[in-house]
Write a structure and sequence with these properties.
The chain has helices spanning 8-67, 69-94, 98-108, 152-164; strands at residues 113-129, 134-151, 168-173, 182-192. By secondary structure, it is of the alpha+beta class. It has a four-stranded antiparallel beta sheet, with helices on one face.
Length: 197
């Protein structure tokens, strides 16, 4: 109510003064916000610089550790072990499993016969691919076995079973296997070539 008694020029000066105070207050808030933002950015910069510096120190330490003769020796040992494992794996892939041969023979071997001897040897041969005109290595197993069957017909049946099995190739029975008609001793040899799936 007291402002109503003032002359219009003073009223205008009062309004201008209040507006000026509001503007100064807003500018002060903006300045405070800017200072706070700059403080946060500076804090982040210091933190990132310190972290980066620590990380660089750690990288340099690790590089020096890797250049250490003991580390180089460990690295060489690991490389040699990896090469050995690769060679072992390669040889393992090239070998035919005797277990798979015995599993197949178990299903084909006559129940009225028994096995006297069994020998197995991994082998390799070059096989020409007629379509591609290339030569590939084929890994197979050579099997020699001898046994005693109740009679010659059992030996003949066993020979037929072996010949019909795709994995068994070049089946050969020694002529002496056919001499006895009862208690027939037999000797056979054949190759086991795993069927590719």
């Amino acid at each position: 109510m007291a402002t109503n008694l003032l002359p219009p020029t003073q009223k205008q000066e009062l309004k201008t003064e209040k507006l000026r105070q509001k503007i100064i207050f807003i500018l002060f808030l903006i300045l405070a916000d800017l200072l706070l933002l700059m403080a946060i950015i500076f804090g982040l910069y210091v933190y990132v610089s310190k972290t980066d510096s620590n990380l660089n120190k750690e990288i340099i330490q690790r590089e020096q550790l890797l250049k250490d003769p003991q580390s180089q020796e460990i690295k060489k040992t690991i490389e040699i072990a990896n090469q050995d494992l690769y060679k072992i794996n390669s040889v393992k892939k090239e070998q035919v499993s005797a277990v798979s041969i015995l599993e197949k023979l178990n299903t084909l071997f006559p129940s009225t016969a028994y096995l006297k001897s069994f020998s197995f040897q991994n082998s390799v041969r070059d096989v020409k691919d007629k379509l591609a005109s290339t030569t590939q290595k084929e890994f197979f197993g050579k099997i020699n076995l001898s046994g005693l069957a109740s009679n010659r017909e059992v030996v003949l049946s066993f020979k037929k079973s072996l010949s019909q099995e795709l994995s068994f190739q070049d089946v050969y029975f020694n002529p002496s296997s056919w001499v006895k008609s009862v208690n027939a001793d037999f000797i056979t040899e054949f190759n086991f070539v795993p069927v590719k799936k």
